[in-house]
Amino acid sequence: MKTTxxxxxxxxxxxxxxxxxxxTITAQPKPWNVPANFKSMANPVAKxxxxxxxxxxxxxxxxxxxxxxxxxxxxxxxxxxxxxxxxFSAAAFQNQTDGEIFFKTKTGRDxxxxxxxxxxxxxxxxxxxxxxxxxx
Length: 136
Hints:
Layout lengths: L1 H23 L11 H4 L9 H14 L1 H4 L23 H4 L3 H10 L13 H11 L5
């Protein structure tokens, strides 16, 4: 009887441990194909304090819940996602063109919402300018 109880408790501990690990690991996002015309698109909104402040306000309202206050992918909703929201301070993000970031924000995909029709293009460009302040 004691052996059966030990086996049961051990098995239960393993099952709980594995389920905790699998729920905290999120898949890396698949490659995001950005059309060439967006990759080379210039940001029409000048970088500066006004744009960064506007972008930060929009970021806080629309992006931080998943991407985190500082873009580390640690927002309160991040753990509920099946894909990682990414680390915007990392080179992989920062090496993208402004046009690539604009396209991804505007069109969205999968768990990333589409902001076309929700935010103006200038709002999205302000967010792009703000994300540039998140680099390491």
